[in-house]
Each structure stands twice: as C-alpha cells, then as structure tokens.
C-alpha cells in the first residue's frame, strides 16, 4: 500500500476502533475518489477474521481527506447510534494542531489565545469560508492557543465547539493565517507536500464500559522545527507557479482558455471559483 493507504490501529474492542489516519486518505468511501479509512479498516478486519455483517466499521465522525490524526469508528450499528446520539456528552476533549502562515502585517497577529466566532458560508463546491457580506451561514466557533510563533509561521492548537466542514482552515485563513499547504485558501508555502492540519488528541468516555480513554498522536516534529527556523524565502508552491504560467520548460495553463473540468475546479481556491461564477 502507499503511505496514504495505511492506517495505524490504536485501540480496538468489540464496540469501537480508534485509528491514526494519514493525510490524503478519505475518512469514508466517496464514489470515484479512491481508498478510505473505513474501507481499509474493513479489509484489515476481513484478513483477521473479525469481520461479519453485524460487526464491521461504521462512521461516527470524519476528518477532511487532507487532515491526518486520531479518529474513531463504531464496530456495530447499535454502537454507532449510541455514539452519535451522545457524541457531545461522551467526548471531553478533541484537539488539533495546525501550522499556519503568519499575516504580513504584525499588527494583524492573533493574540496568544482566544475564540474565533465567525459564521461560515459554503460556495457551490462546498468549500467553507467566512463571508464578507450577508448570505446564508452556519454558526462556527473555534478556540485557538498559540503553541509557537515564528518569523514566518505559527503552530496553533485548536478545539471546536462546532464541527463544520473546513472550519479550522476557513477561520484561520479569514484572520490572515492560511494553513501551510492549503491551496484552497491561498497558502504561499508547501514545504511538507500536504495540508498542515492534524487531529492530535481524542478523549472520551467509552460508550459501553464508561472507561475514560485518551488517545494522542503528535503532529510531525518537523513542523515545530520549521516554525523555529522561519521560512523567509519560501519556494513557491506548485499551484501558484502553474497559475502564473510556471517555469519556461513547463506547459502553461490559462483558465480562460478552456472549459474547466470537475478536477480543475476541485484544485482552485474558492475565491477563483467565485470570480468565474
């Protein structure tokens, strides 16, 4: 398997399974989009002989495809229902780490900790953003703490009062902190070849045994080292280079030259998409 088609099982009993999901892997199957964590877990259970029609993975929450980290699956349909019905009561802590670019203007830096309480809207391609004018929105609340602030990037720890799609990415980008590697929100750095968002901690009360459980998988150590060093002359991300025509030895592509395919649209940021509507 490729790296993004592997999962690490952190815990498994007859009711639940907790895994470490790599970046680039869907949480659950989506037509025509390749492997998923749920599908790979099902394959593992089949190989171990623990899979049956009544004992198989069921989704109880999701991580974005590009987000890595700790996530949980139910292993029976009744466990899924119980977990989803009591999710906010049973989960006591859910923490993320994010590596974000700093705003150019230091006066716009966020405080060391606080709350982003801005509603989110979604464009035609289901990409979330904080709107600048009145439109249909959903509530979204993100708590943030600065772990380390460097010359060019900041490492944040975040927790969510609401679990909306793209919430952390949209909230931080709206404050001038796009996540490194996030082309949808106009990031200018991509030193790790991935979106720098990681679900680090999941703490909950087991839905059947009432045991307090905590699972923690640290984000890549390279993120902190990168913040400490600073990146004052970052290499231009591939998507920015392509948008400007790229190096002379590469084929240039102008958006106005042809009708966009669904794949092209998926790789454009929401501002570009809005300009074409």
UniProtKB/TrEMBL annotation:
Residues 234-259 are annotated as: Disordered. PANTHER family: MITOCHONDRIAL RNA PSEUDOURIDINE SYNTHASE (PTHR21600), RIBOSOMAL LARGE SUBUNIT PSEUDOURIDINE SYNTHASE D (PTHR21600:SF44). It comes from the Bacteria. Belongs to the pseudouridine synthase RluA family. GO terms for biological process: enzyme-directed rRNA pseudouridine synthesis. This is 23S rRNA pseudouridine1911/1915/1917 synthase. Pfam families: PseudoU_synth_2. One of its GO terms (molecular function) is 23S rRNA pseudouridine(1911/1915/1917) synthase activity. It is an enzyme of class 5 (isomerase). Residues 16-174 form the Pseudouridine synthase RsuA/RluA-like domain. The keyword Isomerase applies. It comes from Treponema ruminis. Its EC number is 5.4.99.23. Keywords: Isomerase.
């Amino acid at each position: 398997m490729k790296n993004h088609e592997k999962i690490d099982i952190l815990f498994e009993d007859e009711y639940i399974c907790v895994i470490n999901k790599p970046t680039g892997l869907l949480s659950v199957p989506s037509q025509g989009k390749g492997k998923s964590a749920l599908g790979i877990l099902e394959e593992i259970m089949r190989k171990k002989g623990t899979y049956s029609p009544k004992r198989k993975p069921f989704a109880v929450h999701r991580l974005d495809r590009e987000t890595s980290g700790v996530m949980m699956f139910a292993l029976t349909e009744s466990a899924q229902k119980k977990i989803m019905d009591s999710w906010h009561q049973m989960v006591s802590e859910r923490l993320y780490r994010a590596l974000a670019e700093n705003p150019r203007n230091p006066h716009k830096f966020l405080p060391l900790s606080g709350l982003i309480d801005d509603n989110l809207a979604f464009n035609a391609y289901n990409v979330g953003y904080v709107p600048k004018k009145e439109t249909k929105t959903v509530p979204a609340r993100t708590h943030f703490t600065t772990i380390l602030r460097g010359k060019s990037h900041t490492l944040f720890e975040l927790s969510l009062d609401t679990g909306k799609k793209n919430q952390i990415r949209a909230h931080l980008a709206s404050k001038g902190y796009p996540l490194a590697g996030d082309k949808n929100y106009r990031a200018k750095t991509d030193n790790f070849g991935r979106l720098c968002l990681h679900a680090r901690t999941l703490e909950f009360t087991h839905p059947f045994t009432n045991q307090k459980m905590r699972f923690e998988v640290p984000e890549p150590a390279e993120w902190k080292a990168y913040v400490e060093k600073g990146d004052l002359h970052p290499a231009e991300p591939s998507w920015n280079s392509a948008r400007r025509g790229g190096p002379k030895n590469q084929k240039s592509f102008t958006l106005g030259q042809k009708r966009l395919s669904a794949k092209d649209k998926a790789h454009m940021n929401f501002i570009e998409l809005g300009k074409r509507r």
